[in-house]
Sequence to fold (430 residues):
Amino acid sequence: MSEQQPVIVAGTRTPFLDSAGLYADMMSYELGAEALRGLLARSGVPATDIELVIMGTVLHEVETTNVAREAMLAAGMSSRTPAYTVAMAGISPNVGVMNLCDQIRLGRLKLGIASGTENFSDVPVRLGQGIRRALMKLRQRKDFGDRMKVLGGLRLRDFGLDIPDGSDYTTGMTMGVSCERMVKGTPVSREACDAYAAESHAGAVRAAAAGDLATQITPVTNKAGDTAEADNTPRADATAERLGKLAPVFDRENGVITPGNASRFTDGAGALLLASHEEATRRGLKPLAIVRDYLLAGVDTLQDEMLLGPAMSIPPLLARNGLGFADVGVWEIHEAFAAQMLVNMACMADANFVRARHGHDMPHGEIPRDRLNTWGGSLSLGNPFAATGCRLLLTAAQRLQREGQRFAVVSTCAGGGLGAALLLENTDAM
Fold:
């Protein structure tokens, strides 16, 4: 193994909580700081030894434009440690991991943190565009008459609030509407979606009862003194039968997506400590997994394939490493919607689809359900966008150790028709 091979040596996350709950009095950078503090405590690595902090986020707060810097300073880390923020929709934390790995392979650094934070309890709501632009003009106009002209140009509609609705800027569609369009023409049924969502909840409930999820979590105490020690999103009563009673929300007549088989807006943060293999060995840190390879991708058409990122990124990643689907023992794929998962899985099992999109030499295959998201997924654990990638990677690395498998694939779809896939390898199974 190369001495400069990047490895994941530790990871943690805050409990993932439904929005407008215990984290409601915290800003996103404060949640990120909780994850960073927890990671440093868990790893035992002195904060001053960290050479770089990268943090992903999707909901940008204008007061903390470089949320990575604010979070690491709030966590008590040295101001001499540089930090920067990355944004690539839901795969933002994955990009942070990739950036760190590139620098480790190049020998530019030996030890760094990739992280992500999201707080939907504190969504940045702005004044409407009309009043914002008028206010900026007023700052530049010194003459009273000019100022009155600016004010006179305002209309009642300009005084509304600009509240983010989650729509993709290019298509104007929400992810749910986009997913319903992606499902059209496929055999994916409402019943299959509900059954998949029920499996996700059952897996999370089992993992929580077994203590698997607790191994990831750093408890968080809010400003009121209330403490969260576990996720509050998995539900033991989320059976296929109960989920089947919910009405579709995006296509009320023929849709398959309901509140029960879609991931929820959730608050949370996560952090991963990465090092070169040489540095981990020198410090006596046992790697959880090698980050063997990674790939970013885009879809062919945003209108009908917005969430097809896994099917566009996983086959070429496997091909580049001489692997097939059967060689992968651990799968962790972001569950934006049950329908999105089922469509992506069907596409990757379809030789015609894979060859048409990726070429004749690309692997295709089934993803066994008993190897996929066995500790629950985003449908049950929620989706704090830029923290989900940290959870997926940490879970995959832990499962590699627990299950004795050699390879894990972590993949995520994202707004803007983007996708990412990462290949992890278990050092003990080589």
User: Anything to note?
Assistant: The longest helix spans residues 190-210. The chain has a mean pLDDT of 96. Residues 146 and 152 are 10 Å apart (CA to CA). The first strand starts at residue 6 and ends at 13.
